[in-house]
Specification:
heterodimer; A: mainly alpha; 8 helices; B: alpha/beta; Rossmann fold; six-stranded mixed beta sheet; four-stranded antiparallel beta sheet; 9 helices; binds adenosine-5'-triphosphate; binds magnesium ion
């Protein structure tokens, strides 16, 4: 793997910033290609993937729980007066659940996940890089890309959809809490309204794109960490730039994927 | 006699940008030899070791290990050779998410087919060599600098490689432990017929182990010979390097 060399100065010129941006994109592309070259070749390091998934789950569970609850609450509280003006408060469960399933759940969970996880991976692999631990694997004839990067990317790709489903569920509960603050609505009614509103088809594009988001979080964090240089300062830079890059890519890919689903299933748009 | 050469380096040049670190260096190391590399800080000793193991790619020159030019090798063939080489990093480079035991087991489990019982024996054995049996379940962050160095050493010799590359094995250790480590290098040479390249500033260590030594200076090999020859040389620079006082000319 030959990655483009970035240029780091204390005061970077505009041309250097532009150069670094494209070099980063180029390097990331090479990284993605390398991932797909290696992911299907044994050994699969299943134990390592499982370990990372456990860690990721435990690490992000509290923050996504709170996020899910707040998304649901705020969405319902804000929509309530608007719907009430048209006497349409019966639509509230449908509104909350559809927005959460289709867009808010996947994107906000992914952004939170990026903030917590791509920075973590960036810092972890970055410090392994600058303390020569990655070189140590390399000289022991162990493939560090496979052992460190592939396992982490597989783990983030698989865990984010699970977290998203959980967030959607919690957000819908949050919506109900907001409803009973404003008005009495039985849980059975709310539940039925939600179930009637969401079709299975609504879930597919929403959840499908979280695989892409999970992949982005893993690969960007790994890329920044794996290519870190320049001591502890480089580790810090890997960690922060990973969050920025991952979040931006999530938003860009969200836009692209929404377009693609609308084109594939016009009825869902 | 070409057959006795384990390593042959021809006209090696390594640069970082404008900085020429190694300039047209040639050397050879024989089977079973302990070869010492001296040089002031920043003269490219670590870079030389990293070129030999293929971590850094030189701009020019050839590095033959057992008649295979490692600069031209594919990753797969290079890895085959690397399985027979041990490398001690200057900063030990212990995997900090793993315990000492896991650090030592890692390569054994990944690259070889030993039973768990054999692995356990090897781990204990390697730790005994560096007198750190009690550290087996510690994390690297719980170890002192010198302990890390010794665990790093244990980790690199555990596979009993044919060739060991040591980057300052005794730096930061007390004189007694230093001597023990030097004796260990000598024992490994005798028992396994191991070949070693040892980067060091430690004259005591060099005296114990070295069959031959070179001195790197200004990106060249400036002297080559036995330790006695280097130490007794009248060269002004060498006398300064090896003496206790600064000698004014
Ligand atoms: N990855 C790198 N990128 C740029 N320059 C480097 C790199 N590695 C080493 N250098 C430079 O190469 C020169 C030699 O470094 P090296 O680490 O080999 O020194 P050394 O002889 O091992 O010194 P010491 O005894 O202090 O360990 C130094 O000037 C260093 O700045
Ligand atoms: Mg060095």
């Amino acid at each position: 793997m030959n990655l483009p060399q970035l240029k780091f100065n204390k005061r970077a010129t505009a041309s250097e910033i532009v150069f670094n941006f494209f070099a980063s994109i180029g390097g990331l592309t090479i990284f993605v290609v390398e991932f797909f070259k290696q992911v299907f070749i044994p050994p699969y390091e299943i134990a390592e993937v499982k370990k990372h998934m456990d860690e990721l789950g435990v690490k992000t569970f509290p923050i996504v729980s709170v996020t899910g609850l707040i998304i649901g609450l705020v969405l319902a509280l804000q929509s309530w007066p608007v719907l009430a003006r048209f006497g349409a408060t019966d639509f509230l469960p449908a509104m909350v659940s559809l927005s959460v399933v289709r867009e808010l759940g996947p994107v906000i969970t992914a952004l939170i996940f990026a903030g917590r996880v791509s920075s973590g991976i960036g810092a972890e692999l970055g410090s392994m890089r600058v303390t020569e631990q990655i070189d140590a694997m390399e000289v022991s004839a162990i493939n560090p890309f496979k052992y460190l990067v592939v396992t982490r990317v597989v783990a983030t790709t698989m865990i984010l959809p699970v977290l998203t489903v959980y967030v959607v569920f919690i957000a819908i509960i949050g919506g109900y809490i907001a409803v009973i603050i404003a008005e009495s609505m039985s849980f059975t009614y709310y539940q039925n309204a939600v179930i009637n509103a969401i079709e299975f088809g609504d879930f597919i594009p929403g959840i499908a794109k979280t695989f892409v988001f999970g992949f982005i979080v893993g690969i960007v964090g790994s890329f920044k960490g794996f290519t870190a240089e320049g001591g502890t300062e480089g580790v810090g830079r890997a960690s922060t730039t990973a969050v920025v890059m991952a979040s931006l890519l999530i938003l860009i890919f969200d836009m692209i994927l929404v377009k693609i689903t609308m084109w594939l299933w016009p009825t869902l748009g | 006699m070409a057959d006795s050469r384990l390593i042959r380096i021809e006209n090696l040049t390594k640069r970082f940008g404008d900085l020429v670190v190694l300039n047209d260096i040639s050397l050879h190391v024989d089977y079973g030899e302990n070869f010492v590399v001296f040089g002031q800080s920043g003269t490219g000793k670590s870079v030389l070791l990293k070129c030999i193991i293929g971590l850094l790619k030189p701009e020019a020159g050839n590095i033959f290990i057992k008649d295979k030019n490692i600069i031209e090798l594919k990753k797969k063939e290079l890895n085959k050779i690397r399985k027979n080489i041990g490398f001690l990093f200057q900063g030990a480079a212990l995997y900090d998410s793993m315990t000492v035991r896991e650090n030592l087991e890692f390569t054994l489990k990944k690259n070889f087919n030993f039973t768990q019982k054999e692995i356990d024996e090897k781990v204990i054995n390697a730790l005994e060599h560096v007198s750190l049996e009690e550290a087996i379940d510690k994390m690297p962050s719980e170890l002192s600098g010198g302990m890390k160095k010794r665990i790093g050493l244990a980790r690199s010799i555990i596979t009993e490689p044919e060739l060991m590359l040591y980057d300052e094995p005794t730096t930061g250790l007390d004189p007694i432990t230093s001597k023990e480590i030097s004796e260990l290098i000598l024992t490994l040479q005798k028992r396994l017929n191991m070949t070693s390249i040892v980067v060091t500033h430690d004259l005591i260590c060099a005296n114990i182990i070295a069959d031959r030594a070179i001195f790197l200076r200004d990106s060249k090999i400036s002297y080559e010979g036995t330790i006695d020859e280097l130490v007794q040389s009248d060269d002004y620079f060498l006398r300064n390097f090896f003496s206790k006082e600064i000698i004014k000319e």
